[in-house]
Amino acid sequence: MKAIFLITLCAGTLAAQTGADWPTYHGTSMSQHHSMLDQLTPANIANLELKWVWQAHSMEKFEATPLIVNGVMYVTEAPNNVVALDPQTGREYWVYEHKLPEVTYNCCGKVNRGVALANGMVFVATLDMKLVALDAATGQKRWEVTVDDYKKGYALTNAPLIVKDKLIIGTAGGELGIQGYIAAYDVETGKPRWRFNTIPQPGEPGHDTWGKDAKGNESWKHGGASIWLTGSYDSQLNLTYWGTGNPGPDWNPSMRPGDNLYSDSVVALDADTGKLKWHFQFTPHDEWDFDSVQTPVLVDANWKGAPRKLMLWGNRNAFYYVLDRATGEFLHGSAFAKQTWAQGLDAKGRPIKAPSRGPSAKGTLTFPGVQGSTNWYSPSYNPKTGLFYLSVWDDYSGTYYSWDQTYEQGKWFVGGAVQGEVPATRRLRINRRDPKNGYGAVRALRYETGERVWEYRMGDVTEAGILTTASNLLITGNREGHFLVLDARDGKLLWRRYLGGQTAASPVTYMVNGKQYISLAVGHSLFTFGLKEGTPTIPAQ
User: Fold this and answer.
1) Helix, strand, coil tally for the chain in percent (to 5)
2) pLDDT by residue (tens digit) across 122-152?
3) Cβ-count burial of 57 within 10 angstroms (0-12 exposed, 13-18 middle, 19+ buried)?
């Protein structure tokens, strides 16, 4: 670790966004990925220009979302370095370098999605299961704790969530036979505060949803239900919400009879104690690896004429859901993309599975494919338009295979495979793509009904998150290498630049010294844009 420059940082808060900063992974703990800044508008966005580029030294996927607080930007460089930057110029203030062991056990690239900020510290979770607190002014380590044994297949890839005096994280490793959990630690000391098991242990509610396989093995012991993404928090209810991953093995469901709680679910936990208040399982007894690791978007809005605390959820399984976030009551569900695995949802939101669509020895063609109809990248809700926006893979399928597999520590435990024409995590050159293999789009849905209002269709699929603003801009990227700004009201393209790399992260916007900026990771670099000097603006509110 090298300290290059010293900065002064006041204690940051993640409970509310001031407007100028981007203080937590989703912007605020409500996870709407929406900004109240309005200096950039449809009228002046044509004057957007590149201000600076920060080039990472890593060739891993750049999935991190930067945070900006009090005039300093903090971003992770894969696998687990932390960098403090000047958000106006991209100049490095300091770099913390975390040394990993030669081998770590993690799925889908050595990635990290970001940091958390509180009490003058920067917090990062690592692939070798460390939770590290850094001094925000210098990058010097304040404390470090070991969360679990990474050799058992555990990893930490999500940005932590700060709630009051606690730092909350979740464990990845669902394809390596882990027992997933969510855990809280003391911000000042790193001492454990509580733990919630996403695979219920013997004697815990839900444990009986994991049956024994044909050989008498207890399936819960390697059940998965990992955590990929930062949760949300409702300060009035004092509930924190987290989406959980698939059960294991992924594609041999006969090895784990039952609904397999709390995999493929959202869990609502008391933020002080970690006790489960309610859960909703999107895909019981998942056969297709339909992780529910998407963002719990919290919205206070009218529901059938009365104010209600809602949760909006675009799920990997191709269904859009509206839940009551106080109680977990299912309010609405409808398909937003082509799917063939379910005949629909019943009155309580449980899927009615279509016959003969699960994995098989000969292979079963099913929509959507293994990437799902959307995934971990951030959706957005704009309270001005009343629309929910998400990145979609549509008309996209996979052929699902199943076979028997014995668990071995440190090896993939998936019980099958999926064959598809579209690579799930790495792009092909565009001229090798065939339209019959599906397409990517930004899609706008009415929050009450899931009805499609508009879509912006792309030439390739997309892994980019979405940001909206109070001036009705929608900002995103795509796998083709474009950085895009659309009109959030109708999907009209307002501005586009080719940056040459794949986007697999979510954009942010912030203001420093009266000027609004947009930052987005593309390829292996972080690009930051602002208005040309002299462009007319309106004051930010």
Assistant:
1) 5, 40, 55
2) 999 999 999 999 999 999 999 999 999 999 9
3) exposed
> Residues 6 or more apart from 134 whose CB is under 8 A from it?
82, 96, 121, 122, 123, 124, 140, 141, 142
Nearest Cα to 325, choosing from 312, 315, 310? Answer: 310
Residues 6 or more apart whose CB falls under 8 angstroms from that of 256 comprise 210, 211, 213, 219, 220, 223, 247, 248, 249, 285
373-416 residue pLDDT tens? 999 999 999 999 999 999 999 999 999 999 999 999 989 999 99
Q: What is the pTM of this model?
A: 0.95
Quote the CA–CA distance of 243 and 227 in Å, as a whole number: 7
Cα separation, 80 vs 100, in Å, equals 8
Q: Beta strand pairing status for 34-35 and 467-469?
A: parallel
- Residues marked as catalytic: 289
What's the pLDDT at 541?
Answer: 39
- Residue 348 burial by Cβ neighbours in a 10 Å radius (0-12, 13-18, 19+): exposed
Q: Contact at 8 Å (CB) between 451 and 445?
A: yes
Give backbone dihedrals phi and psi of 208, rounded to 5 degrees, phi first: -75, 0
Residue whose pair of structure tokens reads 């070798």 in the numeric block: 128
Distance between CA atoms of 376 and 126, rounded to whole angstroms? 18
Task: Residue 424: count other Cβ atoms within 10 Å of its Cβ.
Answer: 16
Burial category of 308 from C-beta neighbours within 10 Å (exposed 0-12, middle 13-18, buried 19 and up):
middle
Strand order in the sheet with 239-243: 232-234, 239-243, 265-270, 276-281
What backbone torsions phi and psi does residue 432 show, to the nearest 5 degrees?
A: -100, 0
